[in-house]
Write a structure and sequence with these properties.
This protein is mostly helical. The protein is built from 11 helices and 5 strands, in the order αααααααββααβββαα. The chain has a domain of about 180 residues.
Length: about 300
């Protein structure tokens, strides 16, 4: 009988891991996340940006096209907290540790899903605010409304952005060596996606935006066109400082729904970057790529 020990394997590598192992690790991560100061920082940023968003509009449709801006602080906090959790995976763990990297990945991901709740609450608040105001303005006379309300797929985009924020945080935290670098990258990502959302309004970039802004502007006539000749139900924007033609402003729930699908796929691809090699990564890559492509194609099919 040989007394030489064979290769040591973790329980997670010998077979299925009991569910209570993952949930126990997840509870530990949740406690860390609840004590993370980024929760307070993100809430304060969102409150301050809401005050700016609620100011009188500089142009018709400004608040409609940027209804998600107050969520920016919460989205940044979601990514930063997730990044901190996944960055700890860069610390080497003893080979005999009872839980392998794949188990720790699942536990951290499970814990991070709780970070969707603050963004969900923020989206609910914005929904109630818009409803209480009777809607928002869109268009200019003769085609204008003061009762425009974002469609359900547009509101859902805010919640799915939180899922993407978890994916971004996990990928950045797991793959960047220094936490300060990871934090700066996250600030750059979300300040661009939220603070400069209009950069991604062009037809070529809108399907890939983290936060897609509507309405879509469609040229319908030259500067000399008679706006009274357009259908009465159209929302219009005339020639001005930023355009030399008449345009129709189109809100497309189908476009927003396609973008929602794209965000789900993008989140899966980002999580694959953070996942250890193995079944989880393969599934996330395959599913993420398929869903993201489907969402992109769906947007192209309905883009005004």
């Amino acid at each position: 009988m040989s007394l030489v020990a064979g290769p040591q394997t973790r329980p997670s590598e010998r077979g299925a891991v009991p569910r209570h192992v993952v949930t126990s690790l997840a509870r530990s991560e949740v406690r860390r996340m609840l004590l993370n100061p980024w929760l307070v920082v993100g809430t304060v940023i969102s409150a301050l940006t809401y005050r700016e968003w609620a100011q009188p509009e500089s142009w018709s449709g400004e608040r409609y096209g940027s209804w998600f801006i107050p969520l920016g602080g919460l989205l940044l906090a979601t990514s930063a907290i997730t990044a901190g959790a996944f960055h700890r995976e860069r610390v080497e763990v003893a080979a005999a540790a009872p839980a392998g990297e794949q188990v720790r990945f699942r536990a951290r991901l499970l814990a991070a899903t709780g970070l969707i709740l603050p963004v969900l609450a923020g989206t609910a608040v914005m929904t109630l605010v818009v409803a209480a105001q009777g809607g928002l303005s869109l268009g200019y006379e003769p085609g204008r409304t003061a009762a425009a309300v974002p469609t359900p797929p547009e509101y859902l985009q805010g919640v799915l952005a939180a899922v993407v924020a978890i994916g971004i945080g996990a990928a950045v935290g797991r793959r960047f060596r220094h936490r300060i670098t990871a934090t700066l990258v996250l600030i750059l990502i979300w300040s661009s996606a939220v603070g400069a959302y209009w950069v991604f309004q062009a037809a070529a970039t809108a399907p890939f935006a983290l936060l897609q802004s509507q309405p879509v502007s469609v040229e319908v006539g030259g500067p000399a066109a008679d706006p009274a000749s357009f259908p009465a139900g159209w929302l219009l924007e005339g020639p001005g400082e930023y355009q030399d033609h008449w345009a129709r402003l189109v809100v497309s729930p189908a476009l927003a729904a396609g973008h929602d699908v794209y965000l789900i796929g993008l989140a899966a691809l980002l999580l694959a970057v953070a996942a250890p090699r193995g079944r989880d990564r393969r599934l996330l890559l395959a599913a993420g790529a398929a869903i993201a492509v489907a969402g992109y194609v769906a947007q192209l099919a309905v883009y005004p």
